[in-house]
Backbone:
């Protein structure tokens, strides 16, 4: 028997696991860890959505198998959302499929369209499934550097020119996780024009479509004329309605890609529990003021975090979207790397963040900070960080944490 299975061998050690283990140990020791690592929305799902779930689940007819494509009413409701938000008309039968969150949709589309030896382009740094969904499917992934210091379109053209075989697809994610970078419709137009010329599918992840700040709503790639000839877009209700644990997402766009995903899913699952899909339909068709309230909550948290870290001597650009800040490691700690710096923040400031290197080698030199605590807790986090950066762990708890740091890490 093989010592290690083929697909498992293709996955590197999970960098987050190191920080998570330290976080668990700190909590076991009674320390008050402020966890800004995982992008897990902390707000409740709006009450009218929960009420619809309760109503639907009390009907025993909803307790059987659902359908892997998603119930018809939910697909129609999502077509309505795209028409309202992006002025894009979609066919609910052939251009929309419900997924168990966007992560499952991306991974299963990778299984559906990838042959061993195919090349797929993925941004770097990126949300792990954007690359590893295809790696698990047997593809070779070529990374395209992303961030304010890179010309992404120039890097894309370079990657295509030097890829053998020619790339099958490229994954895009704007607003981006982890970098929070945003793009405009002209950017998407250039990508579609280039990829159509080179016969490359475009897989866009728009999970943060509604978490934007300063009045600049992100566009959909499907707004570009002709985009549906080569593009599919993944979205989710997780952040929009604080429904992360409900696992409802969508893939929309190119009929050939949607059909491929639908066929694979028909073998793998029966879709989300029907009452959850009914409640998701109510979310899309019901009052939408909750979206603005959730957006405003994240913007207020962003402002508290950015202002507090600036007072601590740690300047970072305020993100224009997403529930994350992409923060450059302070100059005095850059030499030790983002993982070691994340460990120091946990040990000496009781604040957990995600090391940038966990999202790819081009994420080195940064940490991702999630806006998943209330403003009071974020203020406490920035005070703890200020004490750490200024070399004065001025609370008994932080002084105890300081004593536990190995000398080599200081």
Residues:
């Amino acid at each position: 028997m093989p010592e290690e299975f083929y697909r498992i061998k293709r996955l590197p050690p999970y960098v987050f696991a190191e920080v998570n283990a330290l976080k668990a140990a700190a909590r076991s020791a009674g320390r008050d860890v402020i966890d800004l690592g995982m992008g897990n929305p902390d707000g409740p799902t709006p009450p009218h959505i929960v009420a619809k779930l309760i109503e639907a689940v009390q009907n025993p007819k909803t307790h059987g198998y659902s359908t892997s494509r998603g119930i018809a009413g939910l697909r129609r409701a999502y077509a309505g959302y795209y028409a309202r938000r992006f002025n894009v008309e979609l066919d609910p039968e052939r251009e929309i499929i419900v997924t168990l969150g966007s992560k499952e949709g991306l991974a299963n589309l990778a299984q559906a369209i990838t042959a061993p030896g195919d090349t797929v382009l993925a941004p770097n740094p990126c949300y792990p499934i954007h690359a590893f969904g295809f790696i698990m499917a047997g593809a070779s992934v070529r990374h395209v550097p992303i961030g304010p210091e890179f010309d992404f379109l120039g890097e894309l053209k370079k990657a295509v020119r030097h890829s053998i075989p020619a790339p099958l697809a490229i994954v895009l994610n704007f607003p981006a996780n982890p970098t929070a970078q945003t793009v405009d419709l002209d950017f998407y137009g250039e990508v579609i024009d280039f990829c159509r010329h080179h016969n490359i599918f475009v897989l866009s992840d728009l999970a943060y479509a509604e978490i934007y700040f300063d009045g600049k709503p992100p566009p959909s790639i499907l707004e570009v004329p002709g985009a549906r000839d080569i593009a599919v877009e993944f979205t989710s209700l997780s952040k929009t309605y604080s429904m992360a644990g409900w696992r409802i997402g969508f893939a929309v766009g190119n009929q050939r890609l949607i059909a491929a995903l639908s066929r694979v899913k028909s073998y793998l699952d029966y879709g989300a529990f029907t009452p959850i899909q009914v409640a998701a339909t109510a979310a899309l068709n019901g009052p939408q003021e909750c979206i603005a309230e959730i957006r405003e909550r994240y913007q207020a948290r962003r402002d508290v975090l950015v202002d507090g870290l600036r007072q601590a001597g740690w300047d970072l650009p305020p993100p224009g979207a997403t529930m994350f800040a992409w923060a450059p490691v302070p100059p005095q700690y850059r030499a030790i790397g983002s993982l070691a710096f994340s460990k120091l923040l946990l040990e000496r400031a009781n604040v957990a963040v995600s090391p940038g290197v966990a999202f790819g080698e081009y994420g080195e030199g940064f940490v991702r900070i999630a806006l998943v605590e209330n403003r009071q807790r974020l203020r406490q986090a920035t005070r703890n960080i200020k004490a750490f950066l200024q070399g004065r762990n001025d609370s008994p708890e932080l002084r105890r944490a300081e004593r536990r740091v190995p000398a080599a890490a200081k």
User: Anything to note?
Assistant: The longest helix spans residues 289-311. The first strand starts at residue 34 and ends at 35. Residues 227 and 327 are 33 Å apart (CA to CA). Residues 394-398, 404-410 have pLDDT under 50 and may be disordered.
